[in-house]
Amino acid sequence: MDFVKNIIGPELKIFETKFSEAVKSNNSTKLDVIMRYIIKRKGKQLRPMFVLLSAKLHGEINESTYRAAALVELLHTATLVHDDVVDESFERRGFFSINAIWKNKIAVLVGDYLLSKGLLLSTSNNDFEHLHILSEAVKQMSEGELLQMEKSRKLNLDEDIYFEIIRNKTASLLSSACAVGAYSTTKDKGIADQMKSFGEKVGIAFQIKDDLFDYGNADIGKPTGNDIKEKKLTLPLIYTLNKIDKASKRELVYIIKNQNKDKEKVQHVIETVVKSGG
Fold it and tell me: What domains can you pick out in the chain, each with its CATH number?
């Protein structure tokens, strides 16, 4: 990502300052402590980068662009905080999650606070098109998550359903980031739609790459086998289940359903996927 920072480095620093201001609370010291914790442990800021890049591709980055980037990051952070509660996950980016430190009730309220900050930022500046684009993304993300939960229980995913899930769950926010970035400098819905389509394809590619890491080398920084332990059917596994014989398929499905915490069994699934070309 260094080459990206060469293009929008100064703008990214301005965004970070504005985002820090956007999350401040006027009434709660505890909220400010939690917000500082979140900001210090920020991720790659991929989505704000795509907002800024899409904006710069079509014009000059302006205040509307920075607000769009902040809205995207506020919504993204809110969903991560809520996801950790839903998944009962106590770690995020190598650090304790909000719910691990401050418990579920506060974590849910923090997610709600971040969401409300995004809504207020947009409505108070009449950025209604930004809000419309991002609201659609949040709806899609919820639908994608629910569809994945429904299908994963039965382990009956096919490739079409998989792509529907990641299009909604993962790619929708990145595609919306590209759309609001372009709209902030053009006010042209046609260009915004084109950038949304571009962002969707990039988001899908990112998710497939991430899924492949689960069957790769642990040296890349992501532990292998996590998706299997969480009973997530990703593209490599779906491909394998559709390719192998019925007996082998029954064996893998049984492991995923009943033995997904057994390291040796999980490794057997990984090896089968790799051998099958998944």
Answer: 2-213 (1.10.600.10), 227-275 (no CATH)
